């Protein structure tokens, strides 16, 4: 997600593709960052929703792999359930399979949600779910999850309820 003068973006596009496969011109300076914080706000909200849903399913006696399979073939499917499931044992090669090590840190998610909150305030845009996600990730940072992947929200929710 890149913002700036379009001609300068086009001149740097080949170099930018070395940094990532998907390089998208978003408009003037700052628009790339705007797109990034919007994307990350949705990612945070989606991950919390996936973690809550999976936790409820476990509490109802559902097998987590079966629930993930059902979600991913139904209208609840999202990136957090299909590609980056937060429940240990559901998927291989994701942070939840490695005690939430690696991935995108909770501190970084809290920072991006803070940026989203600031811009929402500046533009008088209501983002109640974004605000709640920001609060959840800030509490997680204060309670020892700062260096874990943001998908550790599943573990945080399980601890909050006393399992």
TrEMBL record:
Keywords: Branched-chain amino acid catabolism, NAD, Oxidoreductase. Residues 30-156 form the 3-hydroxyisobutyrate dehydrogenase-like NAD-binding domain. GO terms for cellular component: mitochondrion. Its EC number is 1.1.1.31. Pathway: Amino-acid degradation; L-valine degradation. SUPFAM superfamilies: 6-phosphogluconate dehydrogenase C-terminal domain-like. Pfam families: NAD_binding_11. One of its GO terms (biological process) is L-valine catabolic process. The keyword Transmembrane does not apply. It is an enzyme of class 1 (oxidoreductase). It catalyses: 3-hydroxy-2-methylpropanoate + NAD(+) = 2-methyl-3-oxopropanoate + NADH + H(+). GO terms for molecular function: 3-hydroxyisobutyrate dehydrogenase activity; NAD binding. Belongs to the HIBADH-related family. 3-hydroxyisobutyrate dehydrogenase subfamily. PANTHER family: 3-HYDROXYISOBUTYRATE DEHYDROGENASE, 3-HYDROXYISOBUTYRATE DEHYDROGENASE-RELATED. This is 3-hydroxyisobutyrate dehydrogenase. It comes from Muraenolepis orangiensis (Patagonian moray cod). The lineage of its organism: Eukaryota, Metazoa, Chordata, Craniata, Vertebrata.
